[in-house]
Write a structure and sequence with these properties.
The protein is an alpha/beta fold. It has a domain of 110 residues: Rossmann fold. It is built from six helices and nine strands; from the N terminus they run E-E-E-H-E-E-H-E-H-H-H-E-H-E-E. The radius of gyration is 17 Å and the shape is globular. The N and C termini lie far apart (47 Å). The mean pLDDT is 92. The structure holds adenosine-5'-triphosphate. The site of adenosine-5'-triphosphate has 11 residues, from helix 1.
């Protein structure tokens, strides 16, 4: 069942916009004069070959790295001016899982909830939804790569953030988990959320507002 709209930004409004962005790494221009934006209800896929600069772009969009040129706006405000608001509305999950490997799945989730100021809830049920029933108390370092990825993605089931920036979220997931995650994306977008992601896979769900930005590999 779709939860009622809970985001401040209304459907179709641009949440994040980058204009004329440039990024140089190791003397190589990954991209320049790049315009990118995502609206409420939209999924934006960043595609491109290995090394094209997808993760670098995501890190810039998440405010974790500086563009070499260009501007970034959150709700039409320069990001530096409203960064606290932006960070509070952003769920970024990078290449690395972001989980603490010595902690169990339950402990990781409990930590994220506390860090986000979200009240405790039935995390056993959440982990069961994610196919991790019976593994709640196992240190994450003893879980498989796909199971660790599922724990990492658990945040997406309780975050209140409108914008999700996800770097290769399907990595290590089996087909069933990929399908479940895409259904979850669908529900998030239906509620007015927005998603920017990188993936080398094709998306099997037809999202209502979906766009793709192909980054060319530049020498
Ligand atoms: N912090 C950094 N310092 C120096 N070089 C970097 C840094 N981050 C990325 N690079 C370089 O920038 C290029 C693009 O890297 P990036 O991770 O953005 O590519 P990608 O498109 O996400 O690749 P993949 O599909 O393999 O994940 C690579 O050549 C990489 O070595």
């Amino acid at each position: 069942m779709i939860k009622p709209q809970m985001f401040a930004v209304s459907a179709g409004q641009i949440i994040l916009q980058g204009t004329a962005l440039s990024c140089i790494r190791q003397d190589r221009v990954l991209f320049e004069q790049l315009d990118v934006s995502v609206r409420s209800g939209e999924l934006l896929q960043i595609a491109g070959k290995n090394g094209a600069g997808k993760s670098s772009l995501l890190r810039i969009l998440a405010g974790l790295a500086q563009a070499d040129d260009g501007s970034l706006y959150y709700l039409q405000q320069p990001i530096a001016r409203v960064y606290a608001d932006y960070a509070a509305n952003l769920c970024y999950i990078g290449h690395h899982s972001g989980i603490h490997e010595q902690l169990t799945a339950l402990e990781n989730i409990s930590f994220w909830r506390a860090a986000s100021g979200i009240a405790p809830a039935d995390d056993f049920a959440l982990l069961a939804t994610l196919g991790l029933a019976g593994l709640e108390d196992v240190p994450c370092r003893m879980l498989s790569a796909g199971q660790q990825r599922r724990v990492s993605l658990a945040r997406l089931w309780f975050t209140n953030c409108q914008l999700w920036i996800l770097d290769e979220p399907f990595t290590a997931l089996d087909q069933a988990a990929i399908a479940m995650l895409q259904q979850h994306f669908f529900a998030h977008l239906q509620q007015g959320g927005a998603i920017i992601l990188t993936t080398h896979q094709s998306l099997s769900v037809a999202f209502v507002h979906q766009s793709k930005l192909e980054l060319a590999y530049r020498w």
